Amino acid sequence: MPPESRADYFKKRRETIGQFSVSVPRAKLDALTEVLKEKGQTKTQWLNEKIDEEIGK
Q: Global pTM?
């Protein structure tokens, strides 16, 4: 991928995708990761569901 198209790709991505990052205790993160692994769900999928619940979608 040429540098220009890579830069364009990320510029367009930043227009539609936001970053959400928080620090949580390792034990909680490990427990959540295990539960999600059992459900076959990613953290991104899980968080999107929780956000939709919160905003009423």
A: 0.74
Paired tokens of 46: 């899980």
pLDDT of res. 42: 97
What pLDDT does residue 8 have? 92
Query: Which pairs with CB-CB distance under 8 Å and at least 24 residues apart come from 21-24?
Result: none
How would you write the chain as a 3-class SS string? Answer: CCHHHHHHHHHHHHHHCCCCCCCCCHHHHHHHHHHHHHHCCCHHHHHHHHHHHHHCC
**C-alpha–C-alpha distance, residues 48 and 22, integer Å:** 15
What's the maximum distance between 2 C-alpha atoms anywhere in the chain? 42
Gyration radius from the chain CA atoms: 16
